[in-house]
Amino acid sequence: MMHTDELNVSAATVRALLRDQFSELAHLPLRRYESSGTVNAIFRLGESLAAKFPLRKGKPEEVASVIAKEKAAAVRIAGLSPVPVPSFVGMGRPGAGYPLAWSVQTWLPGEVATSTSLGDSETFAMDLAGLIGALRYGDTRGEAFAGSNRGGSLPVHDEWVDECLQRSRGLLDTELLRALWQDFRRLPQPPTDVLSHTDLIPANLLTDGTHLTGVLDVGGFGPADPALDLVAGWHLLDVGPRQIFRELLGSDDVEWQRGKAWAFEQALGAVWYYLGSNHVMTEMGSWTLHRIVEDETGDGNLLAHSGSTIWKMLATS
Predict the structure, then answer these.
(1) Which of 74, 213, 246, 307 is most solvent-facing, going by the fewest CB within 10 Å?
(2) pTM, rounded to two decimals
(3) How far, in whole angstroms, is CA 130 from its chain's centroid?
């Protein structure tokens, strides 16, 4: 289990819910899709649909509100994105022992990107820049970032970063990483927010091996720091393609550093939190920190030879 409050969602439960609430879909072949996702249990329905079930316990009305927000976001982002996003077919209710709302969405073809599968691809870097640029031009409707997640103020995350550093002792060079965060947290705030996907990690990006072909998990779409979606450059791209990515988006030094800071905050949590339960997420966090440390210090091996054990664990897995 990835989370201490994780729900167990079985195929039998899903089949019962379909029979009760989506009888027209109940005859379709059903199989659990094994993914590195951390938010939903996903079940394929035939070849063109998927049922998504929130994994973590929560208040039913709040979870229903989150799914309704995702539905609205999917419509909004679909009008801007140059590649497809899943569309909603319907929203399910609690039942058959499952306590929360859930959804049926369209299934997009493609392979999920990884931290290294397209790192040297200039084509993929250009596609990522095209996606982010298209979203940035969307109308925020006068809205601004709200909440305490990534995309607002960097110093708000001081407590979380400190917890991550405490839990990463023996895994990472926490002294080095703490010093980097002290620099990142002092970066100036952006003058305005833009529309952003807000979670452009590899697991949310589909590819045909060359191009970006789809974008998943769009529920966080909304106004945020323009630098937030730049995390994709650190999660996915090596030095050359990452520079092309930056140039296409026209990021100045401050915006580029803030993007690096958001990637740092996300990656630092992924390493220890998913260690032993989600290898893909731990690997993503480790590769992202590796790229950031290399960029900041010029030493591509610093994390590996300064006492970190995470690289040995990944190399032998």
Answers:
(1) 307
(2) 0.92
(3) 18
